[in-house]
Amino acid sequence: MNSKAEELGRSDQDLILREQLAEHGKSVRVTVFANLVNAAILSILFFDQAPLAMHVLWYAMFAYLSISRLHLAKRSRTADLPRSEMLKLKAGITFNAAGYAQMWGAGVACLLSVATSNQLMLLAIIGAGKMSTAVVSYRHIPEASRAWTIIMYVGLTTGLLYLGGIESYAAIALLTMFGSVLYINGANIFENFANQLTAGQEIQRSAETVRLLLNDFEEQASNWLFSVDADGCLIDVCERFAEAANRPREAMNGMNLISLIEDEEHRTQLADHIANGRSFRDMTVSIDVGGDQQWWTISARVAEEVSGAGSVAFRGVIEDITAQKNAEAKVSYMAHFDGLTDLPNRRLFTETLNRTIHRAQPDDDISLIFFDLDHFKAINDTLGHPIGDKLLQMISRRLESLAKPGDLLARIGGDEFALLLTGARAISQADIAEAIVDQIGKPFLVDDHNVVSSVSVGVAAWTSDMQDANQLLKYADLALYSAKGAGRNRVAFFEEGMDVAAEARRNLELDLRASLGRDEMRLHYQPLVDLKTQQKIGYEALLRWEHPERGVVMPDDFIAVAEETGMIVQLGEWVIRKALDDAASWDEKLTVAINLSPTQMRSASLVSTIVSALAHSGVDPGRLELEITESILMQDSEANIRTLHTLRDLGIRISLDDFGTGYSSLNYLRSFPFDKIKIDRCFVSEIDTREDCRAIIRSVISLAQNLGMTTTAEGVEREDQVDELRMEGCDQVQGFLYGKAEALEEYTDLRSNQAQIPKVETIYLPAAEVPIAADQQRKKA
Ligand code: C2E
Ligand code: CA
Ligand code: CA
């Protein structure tokens, strides 16, 4: 019982206590009266066997107990007693019951010893009766009923023991059984009472919850109930429904539910369900509420009994999902439109393009224009992102003015846009593309900045032999790439062959990526010869790629790709390590020259790579020459010059390669104190035929001498070129006359620096086989 009480909440416990007292208070008057009568009867019957004083005292005690019991009962019937007061009352009732039990127990026990055999019967009835009736009269206060039973039992058994004899012992045994049954049943009676009370309470609470939920449902902003008759006319329209439909409630009663629905398809659907008496769920319909489009979902069940016209045929619920629909629309907008320019984004563009291509008929005209702002990054970097963003917005507005209904203009990347044209518009693709270049080329006034921009445009037209939209995208991209390659600010159209070249380049890229792992790279070495001593002073390392199918690929055919893809860093590291390891086995006077490209120069790991390769090979830094070109000084020059100084501080020599092929060559000579200038082959090859070439060579040599730099003439192929160079005061020569770049195995004299200068006749090349200077120059640029 206790544990049960512990399980209950405080309010449940209070409720039980209150009910215990109230119920107990109800029957008290009758029991008090019965007790007094019983006591009087007993007193009268045993009048002679006990002194008068005892009678008076005994009866006075009963009178006192009865008055206090009546008083307690009266207090118990008072409503809203505090808990502490109720607990006190319950204790009082228990004490009072104990008092009664003592009077009865002591009285009967005492009388047992003086009773005649007839009187014994009377005492037995009174004893047993008093014990059992207490369980009934105190059924709501189990503590009192227990106290009564125990005390009476103790009193009666004491009396019986005193009496002695076999009958008395039998009576004690009976009394024990009797008392136990009463004790246990008293507890059970109370537990039932408490359980009933709490169960009632539960039911009441659930009813309350349901009522609240229903209220809530009715009042909730997005849901309401409705009923319609067999014709679909509304019955008993609730306030919420009328409010949601923005119509007077009275006007809605009797109105057809279908008339609220806007679209024809759902009207027929709903009419069909109602006519056929079919339940339906979650039918989403659009409703016009005072000019506002709203979305509702309607679910309804067939009502249980339909009894004629005007009675409920369907009961259902309507939910207003307008907010949800609007949110969905917003999400969808955000997924398909660019937040900055409000133009369709790449996703919407590709989706639309795919659909257009998918549905296209063979003779449809579809064309795709891709365009990319030139040097937009520079605008962002110099004027800041907010200006860059504003410029993009203004550009978008200008582009929109060029687009016609049916065109799809989209922003597909940072500064990349696309325009999809169909039909007649596609036919005038060239004019539209030119108009784009024109419009974007006009200045923009962005926050007081006069910004001049330009755009490169690639155009591709769809043909029915294309596999899919991707192919068209690829072609437009290739055309754009070609417009950029041709100098930007222009339109380029896709041409046959662009894809073949792009494909070839892509394959080369893939092969190149795998080359190092497959050990396909080799270093060849070309000797550098001192003109005065005619001795070999070192070698330049030149890269060769031995591809199993392509054969030997020369650096001019793959270095540019390696540069653009960044693979040159890895490749260059391999060259540095390999060249220095090779040089470690040569004569200590021989130098090793390694070519560095701009991307390598920018790589943060360059210096550490060189230092570790020097340490690993044990080659003296003074034997290492690094060849760089003017382009290194044109890009990120400050950082590059710092790196060059670091390298030179290590004792490494720095050469300026291909001198004369860049722009303002002489300026670069002042930006860094080079150790050597390598005069490009294009001047050397025509030294004997062109006076300007000879003049350039002469001034470079004299400049270098003044600045304390060594000069090396590249591409020396004939003896007469050597004579001229010697006359001009050139220090070193390098060229086929002294040897082509060869694998190390071809050199037998690496332990000595004695140059085995070949005879002129053996290496003479006819002039026709030497690439002309102009061609060479274009290649390097
Ligand atoms: P470069 O540094 O100017 O190298 C000289 C190029 O001229 C070499 O071509 C060499 O074989 C060629 N050559 C030398 N003497 C003569 C001659 O008498 N007549 C003719 N017609 N040509 C001669 P190669 O080996 O094809 O290298 C081309 C370019 O590739 C190099 O020009 C260099 O810029 C680059 N390169 C080569 N190896 C590497 C490398 O390991 N790393 C980097 N970054 N670039 C490299
Ligand atoms: Ca070189
Ligand atoms: Ca060179």
Distance between the termini: 101 Å
Averaged pLDDT, please? 87
CATH architecture annotation name of the largest domain: Alpha-Beta Barrel
The distinct ligands, each listed once, are:
ligand C2E, calcium ion
Kindly state the number of beta strands: 21
Task: Label the structural class.
Answer: alpha/beta
The total number of structural domains is: 4
Give the biggest beta sheet.
8 strands, mixed, barrel
Q: What is Rg? A: 56 Å
Portion of residues within helices: 55-70%
Question: What does this 3D model show about the protein?
Answer:
With 781 residues, this protein is of the alpha/beta class. It has 4 domains: 200 residues; 109 residues, Beta-Lactamase (2-Layer Sandwich); 159 residues, Reverse transcriptase/Diguanylate cyclase domain (Alpha-Beta Plaits, 2-Layer Sandwich); 266 residues, Alpha-Beta Barrel (TIM Barrel), CATH 3.20.20. The protein is 55% helix and 16% strand. It is built from 31 helices and 21 strands. It has an 8-stranded mixed β-barrel with strand order 13-14-16-17-18-19-20-21. Strand 13 and strand 14 form a beta hairpin. Helix 3 packs antiparallel against helix 4. The radius of gyration is 56 Å and the shape is elongated. The N terminus and C terminus are likely disordered. The site of one calcium ion has 4 residues, from strand 18.
